[in-house]
Amino acid sequence: MMIHLKSAKREKYTLTDLAPEKSALNNAILRSKQKLILCSAAIAFSIVLSMSAFLVLQQHLGYLLLINACLLVHAWLCQAKLAPLIKLFIFQSLVTIGLYVLLYGQERLFEAVIVVTRIILVMLPSWWLASTQSSHQISQVLSLLLPTKWAFVVTTSIKVLPFIGQEARDIYHIQCLRGARITPKALMNPINWYELVKCVLFPLLIQLLSLSKHIAHSANQRHFDKSSTHTHWPLN
Prior knowledge:
Layout: H1 2-55, H2 61-77, H3 83-104, H4 109-132, H5 135-143, H6 148-159, H7 161-177, H8 193-221
């Protein structure tokens, strides 16, 4: 009888000790599901914003600019680096407007500004999504809509966007130190644009090809697509 009572007390104490851990696990799973729902909404929102940049009328672009400005503030509050993005937009704007002026003259300058604005509004939601959402949550959401391989490719492409900006900036500074004629003053001459392609864009393309090879090798080492059921770290 004493042995039975001691055994019952031990089981009671064991269940009592496991109760906080089970509660913490349930809370973690609940938070994970909430983050997954928010990530799904963020993906849908970014897709709609990017499509709207080309579909909305010109007089409605101001509303999109205001929404994207709010996205910039939100990403900044999430500790995202805005400087590389702003530099990329400035460079893209100078190149596009420069080509318009070179080909059509100043009479179509306003049209060039509208084109630049639409391109920025297409790119910014994807950058915001990559800066504010984790890769495993994006992968989980996309796996519900796409095959696993495609979900992995799309997720990796989204998450590599901030890396591309950082890598392009590093290559640009290194080439400037080597004496390449790609400074903002030198690029005012269209003859030097070929040097920008040769010194920055080609090395960046080679670096991205090398990165994709490493990502594929890493996925193979982790036996990616060897199982019909896929898990997502930290919670499935």
